[in-house]
Amino acid sequence: MTTRPTLLGYVRADALSCAEELAAATDSLVAFASAEGFTLGTVYTERDAAESAAFHALLDEVKRSDVRAVVVPTMSHLGLGQPGDTPTALRQHLEFHQAQVWAVNSRTTP
């Protein structure tokens, strides 16, 4: 039996308008992981963009584990609203640590 690789998720709650959208975004990560041949690991949910604690926890897991893939609902979820924290900059930060980043809405590798 072949083990499926693990995919981590990242969602910004402030990018969504309600709890139902947060649940739907998380469900979309689950569906993406399954369709692309991954097992979805931890989904990091950013609740306070000013702190960016969830992103840093995600980055720490990427650094210390063999997980090499991250999925977000849209690339805009990587923009934390702090100076220099643009979607492109944060994606590049993850990719520097050998983690590919996918967005559910594009279903392709960026």
Low confidence ranges: none
How many individual helices? 3
Query: What is the SS-derived class?
Result: alpha/beta
Please report the distance between the alpha carbons of the first and last residues.
30 Å
Order of SSEs: EHEHEHE
Percent of sequence in beta strands: 15-25%
Q: What would you note in describing this structure?
A:
- This protein has 110 residues and is of the alpha/beta class.
- It has three helices and four strands.
- The protein has helices at 19-35, 53-64, 87-96, and strands at residues 6-12, 39-46, 69-72, 100-103.
- Strand 3, helix 3 and strand 4 form a beta-alpha-beta unit.
- The chain is globular.
- It starts with 5 loop residues before the first strand and ends in a 7-residue tail after the last strand.
- The model has no long low-confidence stretch (mean pLDDT 85).
Question: Summary?
Answer:
35% of the residues lie in helices and 21% in strands. The protein is α/β, with parallel strands linked by helices and 110 residues long.
Break the fold down into its secondary structure elements and pairings.
Elements: E1 6-12, H1 19-35, E2 39-46, H2 53-64, E3 69-72, H3 87-96, E4 100-103
Parallel strand pairs: 1-2, 1-3, 3-4
What keyword list fits this structure?
3 helices, 110 residues, alpha/beta
